Amino acid sequence: MNAGFSAPWWLPGPHLQTLWGKFLRRAPLQPTVVQRLDTPDGDFLDVHRLAGPEDSPILVLLHGLEGGIHSHYIQGLLGEASHRGWRAAVIIFRSCGGEMNRTRRSYHSGETTDLAFVLSRLTAESPGSPIVLAGSSLGGNVLLKYLGETGKGISPDVRGAVAISVPFDLNRSSRHIDRGFAKVYQRHFLRSLRRKAQFKRQAHPDIAPARDMKAVTTMFDFDDSFTAPVHGFLDAEDYYRKSSSLGWLKGISVNTLLLSAVDDPFLPNQVLNQVRDTAEGNAFLHLEFSRHGGHVGFVTGPNPFRPVYYLERRTVAFLAGQLQRSPAGT
Question: Which member of 48, 264, 290, 292 is catalytic?
Fold first, then answer.
């Protein structure tokens, strides 16, 4: 257990940590420019670019479920990148940029082709520029799965990664969020997801088996009735089994920090014990599981009027350390 993060007296408990950033943080918007990329399957991706010197590192960011450029942690990480003189690229998952994507498919926790596509564009655009990556929640799962799938074939330009508050086991996570106060988060996600699913069905009536979206009240049911069939999985169980990053950790071959809290309300803490066991023997994985911190929280500092956002400081500090290593260093 890493003691790097300590919850402050004025923000105890996992839910206050989780909700602080969304409702009480006012992170200044960073000056990004939207780049629209046409994808090989006839769709588009919006990537928000933060400018910097041509020879500076590029920080690639992946947001969480139904997040986007306005997510507090994304803006915080962009601010840290700007402070260090880095460039950045925020990948907005399909349908999360305020405009519905064109194709039948959307995005999900195991969809890695868009990340691979953007990375290929960045390496072609800035050959030799070091790239570092950070993903939060769903975006962290996508990142870890991509790194595990790619293994030793990863571009030498990719120098390090950080995965924050990852739902390593999607099956157990989807069931855990259907309990107690966590149902509040579930309802929030489902309102947005159901609306998008209805839009998709209007555009593509045969996209998934007909079901009244208003009757879908859990993440498991949504994934079983929509996410899985739309994206070629047999059912939710099949989707979770193939997409959970827990099964891909052993293949990762770039230094990667796993930053999570034991009290994360999106995940039973027993999963983190399994992550520890799975990560043994892979020197590329660096685990920091604090006792407290909530889900994409990690707010600290002695003064509630001057909070310290440990999440982005720790993320960028770790990545800066990897940039100082040789590309082949471990």
Answer: 264
Using DSSP bridges, classify how beta strands 256-261 and 158-164 pair: parallel, antiparallel or unpaired: parallel
What type of residue sits at position 122?
L
Instruction: Establish whether 137 is a catalytic residue.
Output: yes
With pLDDT > 70 as the criterion, what percentage of the chain qualifies?
Answer: 98
The pLDDT of residue 326 is 64
Which of 48, 63, 231, 295 is flagged as catalytic?
Answer: 295
Q: Which residues of 114-142 are buried (b: 16+ CB within 10 A; e: fewer)?
A: bbebbbeebbeebeeebbbbbbbbbbbbb
Segments in 183-291 forming alpha helices (H): 183-203, 219-222, 228-230, 236-243, 270-279
Q: What is the pLDDT of residue 106?
A: 94
Closest CA to 133 of 125, 124, 122: 122
Distance CA 270, CA 290 (A): 14
- Whole-number pLDDT of residue 2: 43
H or E element in which residue 135 lies: strand 131-136
- Whole-model pTM: value is 0.95
Considering the candidates 71, 137, 260, 290, report the single residue annotated as catalytic. Answer: 137
Residue 292 pLDDT grade (very low, low, confident, very high; cuts 50, 70, 90): very high
Residue 264 a catalytic site member: yes
User: Does 191 have pLDDT greater than 50?
Assistant: yes
Q: Yes or no: say if 1 and 261 are a contact pair by the CB < 8 Å rule.
A: no
